[in-house]
Amino acid sequence: MALRVLEDDFENNRFNDDKCHTLSSVEQMKVEETVQMCYSYLKDELGLEIDESESSQQEIKEETALPRLKRWKHKKFLLKGLEQLSQSYQCLDASRCWLVYWILHSLDLLSVDLPDPVADRVIEYLGRCQNPDGGFGGGPGQMSHLASTYPSVNALCIVGTEKAYQTINRVKLQEFLQCMHTANGGFIMHQDGEEDISCQTYEGGFSGFPGLEAHGGYSFCGLAILVLLEHEGLCDLKSLLRWATNRQMKYEGGFQGRTNKLVDGCYSFWQGGAFPLLHMALSKQDSVSENPVSCSKWMFNQGALQEYILACCQYHSGGLIDKPGKSTDYYHTMYCLSGLSVAQHFTSGHHESDHIIGHKDNELKLTHPVFNICVDKALQASQYFRNCPSGDQSMFTD
Fold first, then answer.
1. Global pTM?
2. Which active-site residues does the annotation give?
3. HSE-up of 235 (CA within 13 Å, CB side)?
4. pLDDT tens digit string along 192-229?
5. Out of 76, 182, 259, 322, which residue is the most buried by the measure of CB atoms under 10 Å away?
6. Would you say 137 and 143 are in contact if contact means Cβ atoms under 8 Å apart?
């Protein structure tokens, strides 16, 4: 795949506020300056001068153009997080299950196997996080919460052993989920807690409550819920597609989470991950559509997203980041890698194709677009639970 940053007119993608400066336009131009430094460093590192006469030479070198995914540094950063966290993570005490999930899925995307002793400690720890009511708390002894139940189940399925699966008390978990369900169709996050409802807005994306602006996280979750329920047609898919495609930044190549906001690496998945779901939903309408969906690529610029993640979001000592100038953390590491996986792999029915920017070693495992764990782990967990005596309570569907 050709690199955008080597195109003669690439700089024409910069934001233009027609000299009518606002706080948001000034911030946008500042971000583009930092991104421009990353892309300039990339071109300098290659020793390429953008010249039409050298186009053939560029084409040869583009195979190794982008910096390689710093696999070893990311692996070291992630494994360290499983053993010990710095004091700066004290504010995430109620999100310890999330930290486990972010780290495990990142390692799995990188094809790093957990040593057995580490996997056993993960299982033992998450087992202590499940409460008698069936839900998981953010840590041992904490209140059951939907937001910590999701990553806990995912993390145990990533470990993928029978011991890990059996740690999940599915009967009590089902009871907990039913208790969180409200009469109007939504869910409260915990006992006597707030209710989150994904609502499609006039923009096309989903918000967390009627009247609020569309947001990438809510849009992904709202669409994924409809996919699980096999009722994607209840939302305006074309409006959602239009909104999602317009969230990809013309210059940076990454995604913003909301209209008129800055690029953020985590939306590589929250926005990028919605496209496989949209593709699947729209493909069902092919029989009545004048413009059938592609059989080879998603409906966003996959190469541009890979360029942004690899050139702008890799921290020098390991881990991935929101945007240039930010510090690394496990949240952005996982969602950047998940978005990178989506951008690298296309799969729809019997059609499959890979779009790898840079070196072939940049390729990650394929992540499941609904659950955001690797596809092999999702299928393995599904098969295990389907073969259990209580198979009708399977955690996953195909």
1. 0.92
2. 215, 258, 261, 264, 266-267, 322, 329, 332
3. 32
4. 888 877 799 999 999 988 889 999 999 999 999 999 99
5. 322
6. yes
